[in-house]
Amino acid sequence: MANGGPEIEQLIQLLARLPGLGPRSARRAVLHLIKKKEQLMLPLSAALDRAVVAVKSCEVCGNVDTISPCSICSDARRGESGILIVVEDVADLWALERAGVGQVRYHVLGGVLSPLDGVGPDDLNLDGLIGRAHGYSEIVLAMNATVEGQTTAHYITDRLAGTGIKVTRLAHGVPVGGELDYLDEGTLSQALKARTEI
Amino acid sequence: MANGGPEIEQLIQLLARLPGLGPRSARRAVLHLIKKKEQLMLPLSAALDRAVVAVKSCEVCGNVDTISPCSICSDARRGESGILIVVEDVADLWALERAGVGQVRYHVLGGVLSPLDGVGPDDLNLDGLIGRAHGYSEIVLAMNATVEGQTTAHYITDRLAGTGIKVTRLAHGVPVGGELDYLDEGTLSQALKARTEI
Ligand SMILES: [Zn+2]
Ligand SMILES: [Zn+2]
């Protein structure tokens, strides 16, 4: 027997595809939703409907927001610092924002160069970065401290060589092999303050 | 700044309330949903809408299904065995069904007696159980092997004393302090086969 009919079974299968949830935790989540129908299931259903309609990818930086250009790209004060931070994913942008790094702008690559996985320069938002870099006085490369992250940083540094734009990277406060989104906010903040020129 | 606007922030906060998800995994889940908008976010939104409308609690046994009486209570073959298995939660019913325990019926108590937490007999679906028990030849008490679970089993045994209905419990294959929903299916199946009369 399927658990409580096809509607429930399908909900379990879809939730099980979320990162961090497996079949067992998806079953628990669905039972929890059903138990808390008024307080949680209905609001979640409505929030998901609204997000489906409202969420878009920023045409400038690749951030997700409900407007494009996003609220960060639309904020003139953030342009005045002249600092553009390049990140792999939106999760990293969110992590830096939670760390309160200040009035900066971002550029989301949407991944890293990884020849083994077939990810080349054309698969990332690199042309967009080169196209907008001239509007900034400093490009901070905030890729993860992984081999692919650092390879991508080297590639960007090469592409920007000769433009006169200052290129920096996060200080070696980021643990080797670590990922930005797992760091505490103090470490991230320190790493940005102590950034070094490449 | 909120992560990408109020719609996204609200979705994160609601998902973070699911068991097994915290704020960080909820953020990852939302970004994953946004990335897989067509393949995952839209189907999940639709599945949730359908489940909100369709899912109901079975008026007979407390199972969740899209019909009431549920598909188990409506299945005449399941009545012929004369076996009614009493469980704490729907998750336990699902676990027994996955174990393939056969043509049985269930009764979901919706919890266990727990004086310290203020849960008394009136807070559980106990009257419903006593009311329908006479239609069965054997009541299997399949509560968790916790103090509260066993207290509840004793209470039910007392209430059924003198009715002539055979009352059994799961065999001691269930680890002491363990919860049904965490057991592998073979253990559950064995525990049911070796059930003993109380
Ligand atoms: Zn933007
Ligand atoms: Zn039922």
Oligomer: homodimer
How many helices of chain A does DSSP assign?
8
Give the low-confidence spans of chain A: none
**Average pLDDT reading of chain A:** 89
The helix fraction of chain A, in percent, is 40-55%
Radius of gyration of chain A: 20 Å
Provide the β-strand percentage band of chain A. 5-15%
Distance between the termini of chain A: 61 Å
What overall geometry of chain A do the principal axes of the alpha carbons give?
elongated
Strand order of the largest sheet of chain A: 4-3-5-6-7
CATH class of one domain in chain A: Alpha Beta
- Biggest protein-protein contact in the assembly: A-B, 55 and 55 residues
Assign the CATH topology of one domain in chain A: Dna Topoisomerase Vi A Subunit, Chain: A, domain 2
- The SSE order of chain A reads HHHEEHEHEHEHEHE
SS content category of chain A: alpha/beta
Largest sheet of chain A: 5 strands, mixed
Query: Per CATH, which architecture of one domain in chain A?
Result: 3-Layer(aba) Sandwich
Q: Would you summarize the structure shown here?
A:
The structure is a homodimer of 198-residue chains. By secondary structure, chain A is α/β, with parallel strands linked by helices.
